[in-house]
Every structure is written in structure tokens, then in C-alpha cells.
Design a protein that fits this description.
heterodimer; A: about 325 residues; alpha/beta; Rossmann fold; five-stranded parallel beta sheet; elongated; B: alpha/beta; nine-stranded mixed beta sheet; globular; binds flavin-adenine dinucleotide; binds adenosine monophosphate
């Protein structure tokens, strides 16, 4: 059995949903799924990981005080060596973007981020390049292989198993000139865009910051995340973390609602893989209208309140 | 001491990309300085302005045409540049080795800047590999920098509303994020001045880099197909709202 390392992310003591798709993609007869959990409550994660076929959980303790990407990456490398893991899969999430390249750099191993398809036996993946305008098939060579998957590309499928939990204490070498001073959470922990099933985004058509409330109101009823075009961000209506596109977050939701967004090539680069795209725009000739699944030619200031009302009555 | 800024020559984000051969693209399109690297150059120039005896050096591994990108970097504030010339595509395992070797042979870095990612290969990793080869600490998606004699404090945007504050010893590697600054778009006099700034050309073979044991090879490149067939939602605002709810419920099954 070939051990496959899964870099597990927890939030508020729960395994993030997106990890289950990764476990599903990695599973095969001849493989053992080994979950690597760093400085997080591994016992809380056990039942959830077992449900998706994980048979070993490595409970990594670094003794560092909270999040430290340099220490966490070193600990993951040590745990991989201890467990003879040469293949590691994680997500192209904020945590994955910090840890996976650090692990790859330490091991001098190939790494492909944002994979939309993986073949772990052939060490071959598909990923987008040139801002989503092309799909590249890339083959990796080396002694270790690191993969960062795009969230939600594989639907999670359960495969119950029983897992052992192994403690792994990592003695952090805190030299190396990298220290965490603090982690600040402003903004109040909104849902991370790339992990959302439903995203409702606004652009220049929203006209100002206050009007984004119309989107937030609908989003609350839908349990959706709110995104934005660069124009909305550059005008200071919403923070940069909400920008979808080539120079923002790349998202892959089940439904993407583009409201008052023209559908520039750079915006598309970040959301074109959405399964269903719905556009609301006053201009029937906006680029987005020709590149979506459903479009409504109309004023967002009429349609959004109506949508909120309709969603409200579904809820009830 | 020097501030090195790694800049990549990439297709304009608005250009349409046509695949040529099995893994190449038609390069008769506009190429520009990678957008995140613009923030890196701008920040390096800003730091130089308030520090004595600091030179900003732009470094690029690329084809001869990448000189244009180095000229842009110099118009935006770099003092000189280094072009490591190659005809081939190189993965980031190799690229980081070449950039590290060129920096090492040029001088002593105080800071090494990169962008947080390149918009063509979307690798998100060169800065970390470069740091590993130079033996330096690294932070990415940096949106604020405070450098003093003891080291460098950076703020990094990890996710919506989450900022990590790291303290690194200098020298260190910094991957610039979009929130770092507004790029210094050059004026005409800046562009004229940049034409006189020196570009040191190194042939890749001169760096005598040992072939790495690991690699990433593009086997095939294909255009991404969009399979969307637009259908109109019509009627009054509430008719449209009802249809959207129906799609969410019965087709996408998300509510
Ligand atoms: C290097 C580079 C990187 C970039 N990266 C990004 C990126 O990551 N993300 C991004 O989004 N952009 C990016 N851009 C910018 C991009 O080119 C566009 O400028 C931007 O996406 C346009 O935003 P928008 O659709 O909100 O505005 P516009 O293009 O102005 O469109 C506004 C739309 O709203 C509609 N509208 C107006 N009023 C109403 C109403 N009342 N009801 C309904 N519809 C209405 C209009 O008809 C119009 O179609 C980038 C550009 C460059 C050069
Ligand atoms: N060929 C190159 N020449 C100079 N810098 C590069 C090159 N490739 C990557 N970089 C730097 O590394 C950063 C990250 O690139 P990537 O790992 O491809 O996403 C870029 O923003 C550049 O600053």
C-alpha cells in the first residue's frame, strides 16, 4: 500500500468540507490515505476523516504558538519522512498556498498548484495556465510529488474506514530568521470565496459601497459568499480579498451570480470554471451575457430586492 | 546593499492566447511585466528612496525579448538589470536556481523581491524555491513592509480579513501582493531615462547550473473551452427572481 499524505485543514475544530474531495480524488485500492493534521485537534477530526477512507491520522505537534508557516512546513516534511510519504496533496487554499510551496522547496520536489485533475500513478496533472485561457497537462519527475488541488473539482464520496491516530512531536528549530509576531483578523471572518458553493459578485453596476448590502442580504439567505470585480475593489467599495479574477481569487463554485459586471477577460479568468453562471446586467451586449448559462437583461436595483424576497419566502 | 527584484515577462492579461505546436503559444502578442512584479518594483524603488547606498536590480530569466520587461522595470525605478538569456521554457525548479545563481554572482542582497505569482504559469512557488537556494526566510502575498537595521517586518494577507505579521531577518525574500502599493506607472521622462540604464546579459549556460533531479514538464497545452449556452431569463423582476430561485433549487441543487 502506497501511503498518500493529505494535508488536512480544520476550521473551528471541524475538517473543512473541501478536504473530502481531496481524499476522494486520492483514494484507490493500492493506496493508504494518511491525514496530516498540524497543531489542530486531530481527535475531533477523526470521525470525519474516517468517513472518507482515511486509515491513519498523524497528529503533528510543533509546540509553536499557533500558525507559523515556516515551522508547519518543516513539521510536515518531517512527518512525511517518518511515515514514508512521497506524495502529498493539499488544497490551493490560503493555507495550502503557504504550506505546499514551502514543503516543495524544502524537498526540492515538483509542485503543481490549482490542479483540476490528478493522476497520482503517472504523476501527471491538469491545471490552468495563462489566466485560465489554456489547460496544461504537466508531468512531474522527482523523488517526491506535491499537489495543490483546486477546491470542489472532485465531489466528495464517502468510503468508511477505521483510522489509527499517531502522535508526532516535531521539535521546531526556531532559528532561520522567521518569526510570527501576530495574526490579525479584521473583517470578521467572512466565508473564504474559493471554498463557497455559491458566490454572488458585484461590479461597477453596484455604484457604491452601501449598495453591496443588496448582495450581502441575498448571500445571507443563500449561505453564499460575496465577491466583486476589480472596479468595485479599486473604488474602495469592498476589500481586495473579495476580488474575483486574474489578479484576485480564482473560484470554482457550483453557482456564480455576476451582478452589474461586464465580464472582462480578467474577471472571467477567475470564475470561468463555475458550473452555472447567472448574469444580471442592463446591457444585453455585455460580454458576460454571451458567456453564461442564464442571463437577465434588467436593472439590478429591481432584480436583487425581488430575489431577496423570493429567497426569503423559500426559507420560510 | 542591493535590492533584487525578480520580474517575469508574461503575455498581457487581455491578450488572446493561441496554442502553437503541442506546448507553445503564439508569441506575437503584447508581453508585459507580470502584474504582481510591478508592485515589487514599485516597493523596491520606494525603499531605495529612503535608504542610503541602495541599488535596485531587476532580474529576469527569459528570451531576448524580455529586455522590454526589464526596461519597464527600470522605467518604474530599478537602477539596472540582469537578463539571463535562454531560448527555452524552464520550470520553477530550474528558474529559482538560475535566479539565485545570478543574484549570488552579482552582489549581496538586502531584500529579494518577487511577485506572489506569475499570471502565465500560475506557479505560486518560485519565491519559496529561490529563498531555499539562497538560504533566506521568505514571506508571500506581502502587503506592508517595514525595514529597519535589525530586519524586516511584513504584513501578509492570508485570507479575507486575516493578516499575518512576520518578522524576518535580512536578507529575506518577499513575494509582493496586490495590496502592497499602487504601481508606479512611468512617465515619458522615466521611459527615456530607462533607455540609458544598463542591462547585463548573461547566457544561461554561463551560470553552469547542474541539471536538477526533479522537474515539471508541460506535455500538452490546449485552449480552455467554455461550455456555456446562454439562456434568457425574462419577465418582470419578480418573474426573473423566481426563475433564479428555481435554477438554484432544481438545477444546481444548492438550496
Ligand atoms: C492586469 C489586469 C488585471 C486585472 N485583474 C482583474 C481581476 O482580477 N478581476 C476583475 O474583475 N477585473 C480585473 N481587471 C479589470 C478588468 O479589465 C475590468 O476593468 C473589470 O473587470 C471591469 O469591472 P466591472 O465589470 O465591474 O465594470 P464594467 O466593465 O464597467 O461593467 C459594469 C457593468 O455593469 C452593468 N450595469 C451598470 N448599471 C447596472 C444596473 N443598474 N443593473 C445591472 N447592470 C448594470 C453595465 O452594463 C456593465 O456591463 C484587470 C485588469 C488588468 C489590466
Ligand atoms: N523567469 C523568471 N524570471 C524572473 N522572475 C521570475 C521568473 N519566473 C518567476 N519569477 C518570479 O517569481 C514569482 C512567482 O512566479 P510563479 O512561481 O511562476 O508563480 C513571479 O512573480 C516573479 O517575480
Amino acid at each position: 500500500m502506497q501511503p498518500i499524505g493529505l494535508l488536512i485543514e480544520l476550521k473551528d475544530g471541524h475538517v473543512k468540507e473541501t478536504n473530502f474531495g481531496v481524499a476522494t480524488a486520492a483514494r484507490a485500492e493500492n493506496r493508504q490515505l494518511v491525514a496530516l493534521v498540524v497543531d489542530a485537534p486531530a481527535d475531533d477530526a477523526k470521525a470525519a476523516l474516517e468517513a472518507y477512507g482515511v486509515t491513519r491520522i498523524v497528529n503533528i505537534r510543533t509546540g509553536s504558538d499557533g500558525w507559523n508557516p515556516a515551522v508547519h512546513a518543516a513539521a510536515v516534511v518531517a512527518a512525511m519522512q517518518e511515515n514514508e510519504i512521497t506524495t502529498l496533496i493539499g488544497l490551493t487554499s490560503p493555507t495550502g498556498r503557504e504550506l505546499l510551496p514551502r514543503v516543495a522547496a524544502r524537498l526540492d520536489a515538483p509542485l503543481i498548484m490549482d490542479c483540476i485533475d490528478i493522476d497520482l500513478d503517472a504523476h501527471r496533472v491538469k491545471t490552468s495556465q495563462y489566466s485560465g485561457k489554456t489547460i496544461a497537462t504537466i508531468s512531474m519527475t522527482g523523488s517526491h510529488f506535491i499537489y495543490g488541488m483546486r477546491a470542489n473539482v472532485v465531489a466528495p464520496l464517502k468510503a468508511p474506514a477505521v483510522a489509527e491516530v499517531i502522535d508526532f512531536a516535531f521539535a521546531a528549530d526556531l532559528r532561520g530568521g522567521f518569526e510570527v509576531m501576530e495574526t490579525r483578523t479584521d473583517g470578521g471572518g467572512s466565508q473564504y470565496l474559493a471554498e463557497s458553493d455559491i458566490i454572488i459578485s458585484g461590479g461597477r453596476g453596484l455604484k457604491n459601497a452601501e449598495n453591496f448590502k443588496l448582495l450581502f442580504d441575498c448571500a445571507r439567505l443563500l449561505n453564499a459568499a460575496v465577491g466583486a470585480s476589480r472596479v468595485a475593489v479599486d473604488n474602495g467599495w469592498v476589500p481586495y480579498a473579495m476580488q474575483v479574477g486574474q489578479t484576485g481569487v480564482k473560484v470554482n463554485p457550483k453557482v456564480y451570480l455576476a451582478v452589474g459586471i461586464s465580464g472582462s477577460i480578467q474577471h472571467f479568468a477567475g470564475m470561468k470554471t463555475a458550473k452555472t453562471i447567472i448574469a444580471i446586467n442592463t446591457d444585453a451586449n455585455a460580454a458576460i451575457m454571451a458567456n453564461c448559462d442564464y442571463y437577465a437583461v434588467g436593472d439590478l436595483f429591481d432584480i436583487l430586492p425581488a430575489l431577496e424576497a423570493a429567497l426569503g419566502s423559500v426559507k420560510r | 546593499m542591493n535590492i533584487y527584484v525578480c520580474v517575469k515577462h508574461v503575455p498581457d492579461s487581455a491578450a488572446s492566447i493561441t496554442v502553437e505546436g503541442k506546448t507553445g503559444i503564439n508569441e506575437k502578442i503584447t508581453f508585459l511585466l507580470n502584474p504582481y512584479d510591478e508592485h515589487a518594483v514599485t516597493e523596491a524603488a520606494k525603499i531605495k528612496a529612503s535608504s542610503a547606498d541602495t541599488e535596485v536590480v531587476a532580474v529576469c530569466l527569459g528570451k531576448a525579448a524580455a529586455e522590454n520587461t526589464l526596461r519597464s522595470a527600470m522605467a518604474m525605478g530599478a537602477d539596472r538589470s540582469i537578463l539571463i538569456e535562454t531560448d527555452q521554457y524552464h520550470d520553477s525548479i530550474f528558474t529559482a536556481r538560475a535566479l539565485a545563481a545570478a543574484i549570488r554572482s552579482d552582489g549581496r542582497p538586502w531584500m529579494v523581491f518577487t511577485g506572489k505569482e506569475s499570471i502565465d504559469s500560475e506557479g505560486m512557488q518560485t519565491q519559496f524555491r529561490l529563498a531555499q537556494h539562497l538560504g533566506l526566510p521568505v514571506a508571500t502575498n506581502v502587503i506592508k513592509i517595514d525595514a529597519d537595521s535589525g530586519g524586516v517586518t511584513v504584513e501578509c494577507e492570508r485570507e479575507a480579513g486575516t493578516i499575518d505579521v512576520f518578522r524576518m531577518s535580512a536578507p529575506c525574500v518577499i513575494g509582493a501582493g496586490k495590496g502592497l502599493n499602487s504601481p508606479n506607472y512611468p512617465t515619458f521622462p522615466d521611459i527615456v531615462k530607462s533607455r540609458k540604464k544598463p542591462v547585463k546579459r548573461i547566457n544561461l549556460t554561463e551560470l553552469a547550473i547542474d541539471p536538477p533531479a526533479a522537474g515539471m514538464q508541460i506535455l500538452e497545452l490546449v485552449p480552455a473551452v467554455e461550455q456555456h449556452t446562454p439562456k434568457a431569463l425574462t419577465g418582470s423582476a419578480s418573474d426573473i427572481a423566481a426563475q433564479i430561485v428555481d435554477i438554484l433549487k432544481n438545477e444546481a441543487k444548492v438550496i
